[in-house]
Amino acid sequence: MKIIVNSIFVEDQEKALEFYTNTLKFVKKHDVPVGEHRWLTLVSPDEQDGTELLLEPNEHPAAKEFQQKIFADGIPATMFGVTDIHKEYERLLESGVKFTMEPTEMGDITMAVFDDTCGNLIQIAQQ
Questions:
Q1: Which domain holds residue 18?
Q2: What region holds the VOC domain (predicted)?
């Protein structure tokens, strides 16, 4: 068994698509109309056959409440791995990304957290 799709709740799929492709540099894999929304998935440019990230609309009240509460508590919705966290941190800062935690060493891992502008905090980590 392996993970093939992981979802993240977003307030606006189009805004999320813009941020995740233009700023984070993920690649759109699927964009299929599903009623008033879309089955909209992204993949890493380095692993285009790897795990997909589904940009899931947060329209269900439970999803919206969950997203808002973990954001308010400073809890990242997900984590992405990076090869060089300091380089990625600087690149994202130059792109206007707002960080809530600068790169911080925690044992063998260095982590940073930023606001994805779509209702989530995202953690990046270098092992």
A1: 5-126
A2: 1-127
Which pLDDT score is estimated for 63? 96
Residues 34-83: tens digit of each pLDDT: 999 999 999 999 999 999 999 999 999 999 999 999 999 999 999 999 99
Q: What is the number of domains present in the chain?
A: 1
C-alpha count within 13 angstroms, C-beta hemisphere, residue 11: 13
Q: What is the DSSP string of the chain?
A: ----EEEEEES-HHHHHHIIIIIS--EEEEEEEETTEEEEEEEBTTBTTS-EEEEEE--SHHHHHHHHHHHHTT--SEEEE-S-HHHHHHHHHHTTPPEEEEEEEETTEEEEEEE-SSS-EEEEEE-
